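To whoever is on call:

I kicked off a structure prediction for a single chain this morning and the downstream step that reads the tokens threw a length-mismatch warning. I double-checked the sequence; it's 157 residues and nothing unusual in it as far as I can see. Pasting both halves so you can look.
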Amino acid sequence: MKKIDLKPKRVPDSWGRLPFGLMWGHTISMGQFEECVTISRAFDSDYLLKGKYCLAKVPIKGFVEKINKTSDLSRAISYKKKDPEYFELGICVPSSCSANMADNLLKTIIKTVFNQDIKDNRTVDEQYCKVDEPIKLRPIDIFAILSSIYGQQFIEK
């Protein structure tokens, strides 16, 4: 029986999907954060592929505005008394990708699959991206943590 390597398939599988109930106001699909950030594969001594999770904000205001406002669906979308402006989508890209590269990738996929252009909005921002890396603590951080632990012991006595 032939062995199949499933690791290459983990990146797209960790992406969010259009959620059930989009027309009822569910405007977020987080994807699989843990699956994405635990991706780690060395291709040679010089390159380690790691997963980078980003929460993208895809503008959907134009899509929502096109819906017939007299339908039951449109009343459901506006349950917050306001049409949603964004759909939040979890995506997984290689850690070497910048937010700008991930933004271009997502816009290309949306253009290809849905035939919709997103020109003026940035969908991916670096502040909403995460790579699983060890936490780097400065000496003052370590001092603050230890002080709070030992300080609490003295207060309890």
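Update from on-call: the warning came from a stale cache, not from the record. Cleared it. Sanity check on the structure: The chain has a mean pLDDT of 77.
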